[in-house]
Design brief:
Blueprint (H helix, E strand, L loop, with lengths): L2 E8 L3 H13 L2 E8 L2 H10 L4 E4 L8 H10 L6 E5 L4 H10 L3 E4 L6 H38 L3 E5 L5 E4 L1 H7 L3 H4 L4 H6 L20 E4 L8 E8 L7 E8 L1 H27 L5 H16 L3 E8 L2 E8 L3 H6 L2 E3 L3 H7 L4 E3 L8 H10 L3 E9 L2 E10 L7 H89 L7 H31 L8 E4 H10 L2 H4 L5 E6 L3 E4 L1 H17 L6 E10 H5 L2 H4 L14 E8 L41 H12 L2 E6 L6 E8 L6
Helix pairs in contact: 2-3, 9-10, 9-14, 14-15, 15-21, 16-18, 18-21
């Protein structure tokens, strides 16, 4: 396989170029080349492309090899440069070699071209490797210097007697001096000045400490440090010592912080444990003060509780007899006490000026110089105060005050709990008496419920029996009156006809009432078992509507049927009963000249679930109570004034009526009665028996109501 070779040819003869290319191809190269004849062309070629070799004629009309060498050197490229000339003297060849040419050949003897090209390419590759290695060494040295200076530790290199020969920038920063001020100084004097060196890390002859000597403090630096040392051996140089000085101040502070936190947590735990015991309140307070003295190094402490506008001493520790007597009672008129009762704490270095004269003398005598009072609060109410004091010349820090506040809050809760416990104990006896009375009342209620169940069964039996007995005579009377009105041919005055029509309407209402009572009785007795068969509900609606034709002749109300006529599995008599009640209500509450719309459609479960906001108020378990995947929805819509939103859910209760009939209809003859309030409860019972739903909503134009019956179709119809 031939080797690729990119050649820049500085030549004015195309024949000579072809000759050179043939020799290179015969030698195993695949040359990619460009020929130039001027300095400008050569400069552009070197800038625009990458080359492996330059072959140049020595002398050309506008250019020569020496000028080509100058152009090559000006480009800062290290490329092999071979002169191939037809005629060149030895002195000219030597001058060219001094100018940077790597070899020269005669055009009439090109047998040396291939060895010369191989040699120069190999030497050029070696030079490139050497330059890369030198660059890597230079870059590595720069990186090491940067790392050496950026390390957060202080790094110092000394000779075997402790004289500093090198240091990093961190040392200069810590000692606030120049690099020249550090070099040559003794490392021990740098850290200790003129004082005696107390650290073994800087004593000479030196013993190396690979494991750092920690917790050192230097007089010329702030903080805590650790020192480690290692020998450094460099070829042909004396042994040096590397010192690594690490600033451990932050760690020491964290350790001290941890010790303080551990002590505080242990104090809180011990106090919380004491607060949970079942001892008397006074005993618990004494143990709490003991724990505070032991854990927090408090010398004097006491607890006052607020009673009848005075702070009464409840517990104390460390107080002498005179001081305890003076603190027995503190009046609320004292300035700091007034502030305390508003929830503000107080602390002072000279507490004597804040207290009564007798207490101030006792405080001065025992040497109290640090004093702090913490209010005992429950919410915004202050129920007492906790005082702590010390003879040490200090002031209580914010951290100590915070810890004391936590303890005071727990103590306040304890005092409040004990107070509530006493109150609860008083209530316990009363509660026991109430419990006994409640038990007796429950027995009475239970007996009353049994009697009510018996009466309800008797009522349902009576309603069922009475309804059956009344249906036969009512049907006979209604049929006779209807026959007289339509087919009797009697000559009657208008007053007589109106009376007969009123009788017919009254019998119809009585029949409806009897049927409703019978239906309610069956629903409450849970005797309704639907016998389903496939029916077209819209056809059933038209049949039910046929029974209202005679009463509607004077109302001028339009009934419009539309929608899907799919077969739905329902009990025909029960479905007719539900539709009749809805249609009767729609006609009753629709003004003269109005319209009632009956629409049917088949929907999937997702379509029904999407209406959760509308259906949810009527069924708490919706959509969990929705079984099946396909449903038939039947809407009965009127254009009356509608039903108030707050009453929509209640209209399905027994005997519940909405407002005055005069507000719902402009009819002057039929369907003007108030009603019994049973119709919609019967509709609800019928739909429950079918496993369906019923609800009411307001029309989009806010004029009228939409009653919806939802029947499951018991099959995957979509």
């Amino acid at each position: 396989m031939k080797r690729p070779l990119r050649i820049l040819l500085v030549e004015d003869s195309e024949e000579d170029v072809l000759l050179l290319l043939r020799v290179l191809k015969d030698g195993g190269f695949e040359p990619v080349w460009q020929r130039v004849e001027t300095a400008a062309d050569m400069g552009r070629a070197l800038a625009e492309q990458k080359w492996d070799l330059v072959i140049s004629d020595y002398n050309m009309p506008q250019f020569d090899a020496l000028e080509a060498l100058k152009v090559l050197h000006g480009s800062n490229l290290d490329l092999p440069f071979i002169i191939v000339s037809g005629k060149i003297g030895e002195d000219l060849a030597i001058a060219a070699m001094k100018s940077g040419a790597h070899d020269y050949l005669m055009k009439d003897n090109l047998s040396r071209l291939m060895p010369a090209v191989d040699r120069e390419l190999r030497e050029a590759a070696d030079r490139q490797k050497h330059r890369s290695a030198q660059e890597d060494i230079r870059r590595g040295k720069m990186q090491w210097e940067a790392v050496f200076d950026s390390v957060s530790d202080l790094i110092i290199i000394t000779d075997t007697v402790g004289r500093i020969t090198r240091c990093n920038r961190r040392v200069i920063t810590y000692f606030c001096c120049s690099y020249a001020d550090i070099l040559g100084r003794n490392i021990g004097r740098l850290f200790y000045g003129e004082e005696n060196i107390s650290s073994k890390a800087f004593l000479f002859p030196h013993k190396f400490h690979a494991a750092a000597e920690e917790d050192l403090v230097f007089p010329l630096l702030n903080g805590w440090f650790s020192v480690a040392s290692y020998p450094m051996n460099v070829e042909n140089e004396p042994v040096s010592i590397v010192f690594i000085i690490r600033d451990i101040t932050k760690r020491k502070k964290m350790e001290e912080e941890k010790r303080v936190i551990d002590r505080e947590l242990l104090t809180l735990y011990a106090i919380a444990f004491r607060l949970n015991t079942k001892q008397s309140l006074e005993k618990i307070m004494e143990e709490l003060l003991f724990q505070m003295h032991n854990m927090l190094r408090i010398e004097f402490s006491c607890i006052h509780t607020l009673r009848q506008k005075e702070l009464k001493l409840t517990a104390s520790l460390g107080l002498d007899q005179d001081l305890e007597k003076g603190l027995k009672s503190l009046h609320v008129d004292l300035p700091w006490v007034k502030s305390m009762l508003k929830g503000k704490l107080a602390k002072a270095r000279t507490p004597a000026r804040l207290l009564p004269a007798n207490v101030a003398q006792a405080i001065t005598r025992v040497g109290i110089t640090a004093w702090c009072t913490i209010p005992l609060r429950i919410g915004s109410e202050v129920i007492g105060v906790m005082m702590v004091a010390s003879s040490a010349k200090k002031s209580y820090s914010d951290r100590e005050v915070f810890l004391l506040t936590l303890i005071a809050n727990q103590l306040a809760v304890l005092i409040e709990n004990y107070t509530l416990y006493d109150q609860m104990r008083e209530k316990a006896t009363e509660l026991q008496r109430s419990r006994k009375a409640l038990k007796e009342n429950l027995l009475e209620v239970k007996r009353a419920n049994i009697e009510l169940d018996r009466l309800n069964v008797a009522k349902n039996n009576f309603i069922g029996m009475a309804s059956h007995e009344l249906k036969t005579p009512i049907t006979s009377i209604m049929g006779g009156v209807q026959f007289l009105l339509k087919y009797g041919g009697l000559q009657m005055t208008p007053e007589q006809e109106n009376i007969l029509i009123s009788v017919y309407e009254g019998i119809g209402q009585l029949k409806c009432l009897v049927e409703n009572l019978l239906s309610i009785s069956r629903i409450e007795a849970k005797e309704i078992i639907p016998h389903k068969k496939p029916l077209r509900l819209l056809v059933l609606c038209k049949e039910v509507y046929g029974n209202f034709c005679l009463p509607l002749t004077g109302r001028k109300i339009t009934i419009d049927f539309a929608g899907a006529e799919d077969e739905v599995p329902v009990d025909e008599s029960l479905a007719s009963l539900a539709i009749r009640n809805l249609l009767e209500n729609a006609i009753k509450f629709t003004p003269d000249g109005g319209e009632v719309q009956i629409r049917g459609e088949v929907l999937g479960k997702k379509d029904i679930v999407s209406q959760s906001r509308t259906i949810g108020p009527f069924y708490r378990n919706f959509p969990k109570n929705l079984s099946g995947s396909c449903f038939y929805r039947l809407n009965v819509t009127d254009n009356g004034i509608g039903i108030p939103a707050e009453e929509q859910v209640r209209i399905f209760e027994k005997f519940y009526g909405v407002g005055d009939i005069a507000y719902h209809s402009s009819g002057t003859s039929d369907f003007m009665s108030k009603g019994t309030g049973l119709g919609l409860s019967i509709v609800r019972g019928v739909m429950d028996a079918h496993g369906g739903l019923v609800w009411v909503s307001q029309r989009k134009d806010a004029s009228g109501s939409v009653f919806t019956l939802l029947f499951p179709m018991d099959s995957d119809c979509l």
